[in-house]
Amino acid sequence: MEHATHEVFNQPAPLAGYNLFDTNRPLRDALKFNAPQLQLAPLQHLGAALGSAEMQAHARLANVHTPELHTHDRFGRRIDEVEFHPSYHALMGAAVGAGLHGTPWAGEGSLSPHVQRAAGFMLFTELEPSMLCPISMTYAATPALRGNAAVYADWGPKLTSHWYDPALKPWRDKPGVTMGMGMTEKQGGSDVRANTTRAVRAGNDAWGERYEITGHKWFFSAPMCDAFLVLAQAPAGLSCFFLPRVLPDGSRNEIRIQRLKDKLGNKANASSEVEFQGASAWLVGEEGRGVPQILEMGTMTRLDCALGTSGLMRQALALALNHTRQRQAFGKPLIEQPLMKNVLADLALESEAATALAIRLARAFDRPQDEHERLTARLLTPVAKFWICKRGSHLAQEAMECLGGNGYVEEGGEGVMARVYREMPLNSIWEGAGNIMALDLLRGLRKGDAIAALAHELAPARGVDAALDRLADALPARIEAMATETEARRLAQDVALAVQASLLAQTAPQAVTGAFCASRIGGDWGHAFGTLGGGVDFDSIIARAQPL
After folding, report:
1. Are 544 and 345 within 8 A, CB to CB?
2. Does one domain contain both 282 and 378?
3. Which of 63, 176, 413, 452 is the most buried (most CB within 10 A)?
4. Is residue 12 part of a domain?
5. What three-state secondary structure class fits 213?
6. Are 320 and 344 in contact, with CB atoms under 8 Å apart?
7. 77 burial level (CB within 10 Å; 0-12, 13-18, 19+)
8. To which H or E segment does residue 358 belong?
9. What is the pTM (predicted TM-score) of this model?
10. Are residues 122 and 189 in the same domain?
11. Assigned domain for 328 exists
C-alpha cells in the first residue's frame, strides 16, 4: 500500500493578483495630504497592473535572465550592445507608458506632477526596482538638457513620450528615447572633481559646440540608453556634455563597453564600465559649470532613492504580512502571535513614516517658486535619502525573518523577498552614500533661513507629543552649535525623525503617531524591530498596513 509522504500544507499562497495602490492606505493618505486635487484613477490602474501575476512573472524573468554584453558581432566588428530578456523590455514599456520617466516635464496638466510620478515610481518599485535606473536618470537628465537649446528642441519631446523603443538607431527614427549618466571614475567616486576624462573642442554644428571625449567611466548605468550626460575636463574646467549612442549621421559613437558589473542585487539593470575613444559630445550649459549641473540632477535622483526604498519597504512589509496571515504556528496564525504582532507593527510604522517623508519631499519639487518649498526640498532631500535608505536594509532583514527559511530562498513567489533584500543597500550607496548626504544637509542648513523652514514644517504637530516637542525645541540650537561635521549623521537622523513624526501626526491615526513618537523619539524602544512598548495598539497598526 502506497502512502503519501509529501502532502504540502501550511504553506502560504503567493501575494499576487491584488491592487498595489488600492491596498496601500498610508500612500493614499499621504497623497490626500500632499496633493488633494490629484486624480487617482491612473494610479489605481497602474496598481492593478503591477500587482498582476503576469507582471510579477516579467519581474522574475528579468532578474533570472540577466543582461548579456556583446562587444563584437560574429564578423569581428565592434557593436558594444547589451542584450536583455524580453521581460525587461516589457517592464520598461510599462514604466515609460506610465510616464514615470517624464510626467513632470510633459506639461500634461497635473497640478502635482512630481507627486503623481512619485507615487507611481513607488508602486513600480514594489514590482521590480532595478530596471527603474534608466527611468530615474531620464527624469533627472531631461531638465538639465535645456542647457543646450538645440539638443533639447530635438530630444525633449522624445524624452517625455510614452513610447518605449529599445532599438539602437538615430533619435529621429524613434518614437521615444531614454537617457543615462556617466559621472564617476575609478580614482574619484563621489569626488567628481578628480575626473580625468578629457574634452577637446572639435567644431560647431546644429547642436552647438562639439567636443571629442576621451577617458573612462567606472559606473555607467544603463549603457543601452539613447544618450548620456557625462562629465569631462574641458579647457575651462569640469563640464557637462550630451553624448548620444548613435550620431546624427546614423553611425555609432565611440563608446566602448568594457564589462558589465556583477552586482549584489539590481540584477535586471545593466551597469557597465566604459571607455570613450574620441566620442562626439555636445556642451550642455557653460564650460566649467559641470558640478552645479550634476548637483541639480543629483537632487532628483536622490528623491528617487528615497521613493524607491520606501516602495521596497512597503513590498517587504506586504510579503511579511501575507506570509504571517496564512502561516500557522503553535496553534494559530503567526500574525496572531503577540510577539509577531510587535514585529509587524514596528515594520509598519517604519514603512509608513518612510512613505510620508518621501511623498512630502516630492511635493516640494512641485512648487520650486515657493521659497519655503525650495528650502524644504534642499533640506529634506539629503535627510530623506540618508535616513530612509539607511532604514531599508534593517527593515528588509527583519521582514525576511518573518518568513523564516522561505524568505531566504530565491525561487518561486517567496523569492521576491530575497530580491528585495539584495536590492536594499543600493539606494543608500547610489548618488552619494551616508556621509555625503549628512554633509550635504550641513551645506543646506547654511542656505536661506533653513532653521525657520524646518520650524514651519514641524509647527503643525506642536502639542501632539511631548517627546516630539522636546526634539523640535532642541534642533535649532543644535544646528547653530554644529561647529564640525562629526555629529552630522545624528543631526540628519533626528531631523528625519522629527519631520516623519510631524507628518504622521497630520496623516495617520493616533495609534500610528503615538507608537512612532514613543518608540523613535521617546525612547520606549529597543535596538531591534519588535521592541515596541506593551501599550501599543498593535492590531490597529497591522490592520492599516494589510495589502489584502
Report:
1. no
2. no
3. 63
4. no
5. strand
6. yes
7. exposed
8. helix 338-365
9. 0.96
10. no
11. yes
E strand or H helix at 239: strand 237-244
Q: Is pLDDT of 288 > 60?
A: yes
Domain assignment of residue 337, yes or no = yes
Backbone angles phi, psi at 203, to 5 degrees: 115, -175
Q: What whole-number distance in Å separates Cα of residue 442 and Cα of residue 435?
A: 11
Unique residue bearing C-alpha cell 514613543? 518
Contact 307/358 with Cβ under 8 angstroms? yes
Q: 10 Å Cβ neighbour count for 75?
A: 6
The domain of 429 spans 292-545
How many angstroms separate the CA atoms of 178 and 252, rounded? 16
Instruction: Examine residue 449 and state whether it is found in any structural domain, yes or no.
Output: yes
Q: Residue 191: pLDDT above 80? A: yes
Query: Which residues neighbour 112 within 8 Å (Cβ) at sequence distance 6 or greater?
Result: 34, 35, 37, 38, 363, 366
Q: What is the greatest pairwise CA distance in the chain?
A: 87
Residue 502 banded pLDDT, cuts 50, 70, 90: very high
In sequence order, what are the residues at sequence separation of 6 or more whose Cβ sits closer than 8 angstroms to the Cβ of residue 360? 30, 34, 380, 499, 503
Residue 21: how many other CB atoms lie within 10 Å: 24
Nearest C-alpha neighbor of 515 from the set 473, 463, 478, 465? 465
Same domain, yes or no: 60 and 96: yes
Q: Cα–Cα distance between 315 and 333 in angstroms, integer? A: 21
* C-alpha radius of gyration, the chain, whole number: 24
Q: How large is the average pLDDT for residues 230-240?
A: 96
> Do 101 and 215 share a domain, yes or no?
no
Instruction: Report the C-alpha gap between 405 and 394 in whole angstroms.
Output: 17
Measured CA to CA in angstroms, residue 469 lies from 134, 356, 502 at distances of 42, 19, 10
Q: In 3-state terms, what secondary structure has residue 418? A: helix
SS3 state at 432: coil
Contacts of residue 94, defined as CB under 8 A and 6 or more positions apart, other chains included, come to 49, 50, 55, 124
Assess whether 310 and 250 both reside in one domain: no
Burial 473-482 (b: 16+ CB within 10 A, else e): eebeeebeee
Q: Give the three-state DSSP class for 428.
A: helix
Q: Does the pLDDT of residue 287 top 60, yes or no?
A: yes
Query: What is the SS3 string spanning 471-488?
Result: HHHHHHHHHHCCCCCCCH
Instruction: Record the cell numbers describing residue 408, joined without a space.
Output: 531566504
Pairing of strands 179-182, 227-234: parallel
Return d(Cα 388, Cα 250) in angstroms, integer. Answer: 44
Residue 224's DSSP bridge partners are none
Closest CA to 451 of 375, 362, 505: 375
